[in-house]
Write a structure and sequence with these properties.
Two copies of one chain form a homodimer. The first copy, chain A, starts with a strand and ends with a strand. In chain A, helix 1 links the parallel strand 1 (2-9) and strand 2. A six-stranded parallel beta sheet of chain A has the order 3-2-1-5-4-6, sandwiched between helices. In chain A, strands 7-8 form a two-stranded antiparallel sheet. Chain A has helices at 15-27, 41-54, 66-75, 90-93, 114-119, 133-144, and strands spanning 2-9, 32-37, 59-62, 79-89, 103-107, 122-125, 162-164, 173-175. Chain A is built from six helices and eight strands. The first copy, chain A, is globular. Chain A is an alpha/beta fold. At the A-B interface, helix 1, strand 4, helix 5 and helix 6 of A face helix 1, strand 4, helix 5 and helix 6 of B.
Chain lengths: 179, 179
């Protein structure tokens, strides 16, 4: 089980980036996103709409105390993985994480308090260059799941109403008939 | 050589997403980004600032005719790879792309004209779920480069003024002394 903790969401600045974080987490097989910063009903609705249409049990919820979330997860035995451009290389650090292990992946904004660096089991970088927490999250889950997110068979989205059928050219979708 | 073509940039909606696309392209070892839609001096400056500080030869430029860019690249022998959630799975489609090959990776907005599906050699999906063009781009380059973007030795950023030194906890940077 993988949960993503998105720090310091700000309206309107982070609206799209946080949506991308959440949808990437879902598409790659995480169970849910907890976010701190400003509570954002519109972000939660966007994600809920995708879950209703495309399936799965993905959750999103706000927290006032992200550090407590880290501590709670730690007590439950989760591995705490903080993504930062200042960390140790994701290859090979993330191959030390077992695929079956529970993990909390922390993704920040520009200024992550030092407490999160301290609370993490792993401060991991996806390249040591400035880029995108969305890109970093995708690669991190890809490495932990050993690429299994790429196989539709491995990542099921139960209860989907619509799904895309991979095709060489154009767009094919299937809509499940109403029961 | 990998070039990224970002379609239909809109101000202000895509300002951050396009910045993330460009910085991800750079961090993962692409040579530059060409973008269509609205010309955005602020986007170009943000990317140029990162290049000045963190090094490398990465370019960004605007185009009025993205389809001509595709055709030009095709004539030069580039493989045209369009990322879409409706395409064939990136694993294994992108392993057919040789690491040494020139590639143009096309990433779109919500409505990509059918011409781009037709013009592409490969319409590739990074999962068939809705998520993020930034995440998809990261995985696509990762697969084409066989993960080499993760090795600082493999992806050099010549002329850097500052660089991050991967460390287990906290932030370490090195600033190159002025000559």
């Amino acid at each position: 089980m993988i949960i993503v903790l998105r720090l310091d969401h700000r309206i309107p600045r982070d609206e799209r980036a946080s949506t991308h974080v959440a949808l990437t987490a879902r598409a790659f097989g995480a169970s849910g996103v907890v976010y701190s910063g400003q509570k954002d009903g519109s972000l939660e609705e966007s994600v809920a709409r995708v879950v209703t249409e495309w399936g799965g049990d993905f959750f999103i919820r706000h927290t006032k105390s992200p550090l407590s979330e880290v501590k709670d997860c730690r007590e439950k035995g989760y591995r705490i993985i903080h993504l930062t451009m200042y960390g140790v290389p994701a290859d090979p650090a993330l191959t030390a994480v077992k695929e079956t292990e529970n993990a909390l992946i922390v993704v920040g904004g520009s200024q992550v308090p030092i407490e999160f660096y301290r609370a993490a089991d792993l401060n991991v970088s996806v390249t040591n260059q400035p880029h995108s927490e969305i890109a970093a999250l995708a690669i991190a889950i890809d490495r932990i799941r050993r690429g299994k997110e790429m196989s539709a068979q491995e990542t099921e989205f139960s209860g989907w109403k619509i799904r895309a059928l991979g095709t060489e050219r154009g767009k094919k979708t299937e809509r499940r008939p109403k029961e």
